[in-house]
């Protein structure tokens, strides 16, 4: 079965049909295949246009009917080429949108994993215990500051008199 008939008849793996749709990777691969196919068709049409133009020049004024037919074919090929350009543009837009959606999905999944990890980390923490701990730390810092102040005061041996 040719690539074109697979594309239009929806040919795909049986696994993707059973799951309710293709995976993003499968869809991206098919879009890339279609882009490749259309690019080859573009190249073919461009060579055909050049041939018809050369034929029209060759016939020139000698055989006007053949020259006109060659120019008509050239015009038809140019119209097909223009349609393919539009289709390629649409496929490229679709592929980029799909890639962005896939990236967003992965980011969202990873953010969910991170949220679960944070939840697991915080499940052993009690807000009251944290408040008590912070008060203890503050008290100990105050005691340490008092000790530091007491040590750092200059000893004034004999300067202080008790009246």
Description:
With about 160 residues, the protein is an all-alpha fold. It has a domain at about 25-115: Helix Hairpins, CATH 1.10.287. The chain contains 5 helices and no strands. The protein has helices at about 5-10, 15-20, 25-60, 65-120, 125-150. The protein is rod-shaped and about 125 Å long. Mean pLDDT is about 85; it is low at about 10-15. It is found in: Cytoplasm, Cytosol; Late endosome membrane. One of its GO terms (biological process) is protein transport. This is CHM4C protein.
Structural descriptors:
163 residues; mainly alpha; Helix Hairpins; rod-shaped
The coarse overall form would be: rod-shaped
Give a short account of the largest sheet.
none
Q: What is the architecture of the domain at 24-113 at the second tier of CATH? A: Orthogonal Bundle
Average pLDDT number: 85
What's the structural blueprint in terms of helices and strands?
Elements: H1 3-9, H2 14-18, H3 24-59, H4 64-122, H5 127-152
Helix pairs in contact: 3-4
């Amino acid at each position: 079965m040719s690539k074109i008939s697979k594309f239009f008849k929806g040919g795909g793996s049986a696994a993707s049909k059973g799951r309710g749709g293709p995976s993003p990777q499968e869809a991206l691969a098919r879009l890339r295949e279609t882009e490749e196919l259309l690019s080859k068709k573009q190249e073919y049409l461009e060579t055909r246009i050049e041939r018809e133009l050369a034929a029209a020049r060759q016939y020139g004024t000698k055989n006007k009917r053949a020259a006109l037919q060659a120019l008509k074919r050239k015009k038809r090929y140019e119209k097909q080429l223009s349609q393919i350009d539009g289709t390629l543009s649409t496929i490229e837009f679709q592929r980029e949108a799909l890639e962005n959606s896939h990236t967003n999905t992965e980011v969202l999944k990873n953010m969910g994993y991170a949220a679960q990890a944070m939840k697991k980390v915080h499940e052993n923490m009690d807000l009251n215990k944290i408040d008590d701990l912070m008060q203890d730390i503050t008290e100990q810092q105050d005691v340490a500051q008092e000790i530091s102040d007491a040590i750092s005061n200059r000893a004034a041996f004999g300067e202080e008199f008790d009246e």
